[in-house]
């Protein structure tokens, strides 16, 4: 079957007998024989059994886990082709808001070993990823992770040969200036013994469902952390739970772009995390109001704030009505589920002249742009390739009031 398009999750799209067939690890223009592995009333999922017509951009995936672990989507093609496919993926969504204009792309210089964060699932003494249908795939290393993380991973594997856990869900590695931090997340507290394999790392033990949630508590820590995140001349602390962009080099490009486009008097920075962008924006604006619901991130934002920065600890949708009245510019940087309808309604009602929307999920981005389209016009769209080799991308859209 002929691959005619690319899905929002990076699979090749074919059409056969009136049904859509998604085939991972292919390229538009290829002709492939597939083995159907899943069939529903609306679509099928196939695996490549044979390639009849090969893409000229095909290349050998360097990672043995590619296609199994569920992490990467584009190791089978050259990087410039991956970027072209990502642009098609984004354009397929932007058609819904009638946008056919220019899209510029900021590439990532590193396409491997760029991630400062790695989260591995723990199962019966082994570490790995959850691939198709949540199948556990044991891995020895990950080509996306920073090399310092991979060195720490060797120490953690040595540790796990000596100690096993019943309630350990996953281990997160974070790497910035000052080394690597380890966070063990348990579903229930259990006995933990620090060992010389882990002595050089700050180690945190947390209990809960997901690390980033306020419901998850750190119940023990070993070895002081002096880790720092340095960006555009500012230095920030790194903690176990709050969000930081995973690709430092591309993050710097993204924030520089935002700063170039914001010269407002009063800027609302919604979904502001631990205040990195707020602090950078504060150098240019009269006042920056950051809004963030996560407690640990809010506390850091309070600790690092400059005089013209205010941090609101709340859900954006609960307080936006008040702050949209005083802002000239709003920066939105929501999680993958995008903005709450109430946030967009209040922006529409306000006098805010410019909206800067940073998104890590172009499907919810397109949905939210659709809600704004009668009131704000898109003046610039740029892709920041924060997550090379995967189907995820960061997009920054600048909108101005009609
Ligand atoms: C993609 S991160 C952006 C962080 C920040 N702008 C940065 O660049 O470091 C999204 C942030 O939004 C927060 N968040 C998610 N839903 C929220 C909501 N409804 N109200 C306030 N904050 C929210 C998360 O805790 C997270 O810190």
Structure description:
- With 402 residues, this protein is an alpha/beta fold.
- The protein folds into three domains: 1-56, Beta Barrel (OB fold (Dihydrolipoamide Acetyltransferase, E2P)), CATH 2.40.50.140; 117-229, OB fold (Dihydrolipoamide Acetyltransferase, E2P) (Beta Barrel); 247-401, Rossmann fold.
- It is built from eight helices and 22 strands.
- The protein has helices spanning 79-94, 147-162, 248-261, 276-281, 295-304, 316-323, 341-349, 362-372; strands at residues 5-6, 12-16, 19-23, 31-39, 43-53, 104-106, 117-123, 126-130, 136-138, 168-176, 179-186, 203-207, 217-222, 228-231, 234-237, 266-270, 287-292, 309-313, 329-332, 354-359, 376-384, 394-401.
- Strands 6-21-22-20-19-16-17-18 form an eight-stranded mixed β-sheet, sandwiched between helices. Strands 9-8-7-10-11-12-13 form a seven-stranded mixed β-sheet, covered by helices on one side.
- Helix 6 runs parallel beside helix 7.
- The longest helix is centred in the N-terminal third of the chain and has 16 residues, at 79-94.
- The model has no long low-confidence stretch (mean pLDDT 97).
- The structure holds S-adenosylmethionine.
- S-adenosylmethionine is lined by residues 243-245, 271-273, 276-277, 291-294, 297, 315-317, 333-335.
């Amino acid at each position: 079957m002929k691959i005619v398009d690319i899905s929002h999750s990076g699979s090749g799209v074919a059409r056969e007998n009136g049904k859509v067939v998604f085939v991972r690890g292919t390229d538009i223009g290829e002709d492939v024989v597939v083995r159907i592995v899943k069939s529903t009333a609306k679509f099928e999922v196939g695996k490549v059994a044979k390639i009849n017509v090969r893409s000229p951009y095909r290349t050998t995936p360097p990672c043995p886990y590619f296609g199994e672990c569920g992490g990467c989507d584009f190791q089978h093609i050259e990087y410039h082709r991956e970027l072209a496919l990502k642009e098609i993926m984004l354009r397929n969504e932007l058609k819904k808001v009638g946008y056919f204009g220019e899209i510029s792309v900021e590439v990532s210089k590193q396409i491997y070993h760029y991630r400062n964060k790695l989260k591995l699932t723990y199962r019966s003494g082994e570490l790995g990823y959850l691939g198709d249908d949540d199948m556990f795939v044991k891995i020895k290393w990950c080509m996306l992770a920073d090399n310092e993380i991979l060195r720490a991973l060797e120490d953690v594997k040595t540790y796990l040969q000596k100690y096993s856990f019943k309630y350990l869900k996953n281990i997160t590695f974070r790497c910035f200036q000052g080394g690597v931090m380890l966070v063990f997340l348990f579903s229930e507290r259990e006995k933990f013994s620090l060992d010389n394999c882990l002595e050089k790392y700050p180690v945190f033990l947390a209990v809960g469902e997901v690390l980033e949630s306020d419901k998850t508590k750190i119940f023990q820590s070993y070895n002081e952390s002096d880790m720092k995140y340095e960006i555009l001349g500012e230095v920030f602390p790194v903690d176990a739970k709050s969000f930081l962009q995973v690709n430092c080099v591309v993050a710097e490009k993204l924030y520089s772009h935002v700063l170039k486009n914001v010269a407002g008097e009063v800027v609302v920075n919604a979904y502001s995390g631990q205040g990195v962008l707020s602090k950078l924006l504060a150098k240019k604006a009269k006042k920056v109001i950051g809004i963030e619901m996560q407690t640990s991130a809010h506390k850091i934002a309070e600790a690092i704030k400059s005089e013209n920065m205010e941090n609101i600890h709340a859900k954006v949708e609960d307080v936006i009505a008040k702050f949209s009245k005083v802002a000239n510019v709003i920066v939105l940087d929501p999680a993958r589920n995008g903005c709450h309808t109430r946030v967009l309604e209040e922006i529409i009602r306000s006098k805010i002249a410019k909206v800067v929307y940073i998104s890590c999920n172009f499907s919810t981005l397109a949905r939210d742009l659709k809600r704004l389209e009668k009131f704000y016009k898109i003046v610039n769209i740029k892709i920041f390739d924060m997550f090379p080799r995967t189907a995820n991308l960061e997009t920054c859209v600048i909108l101005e009031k009609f």
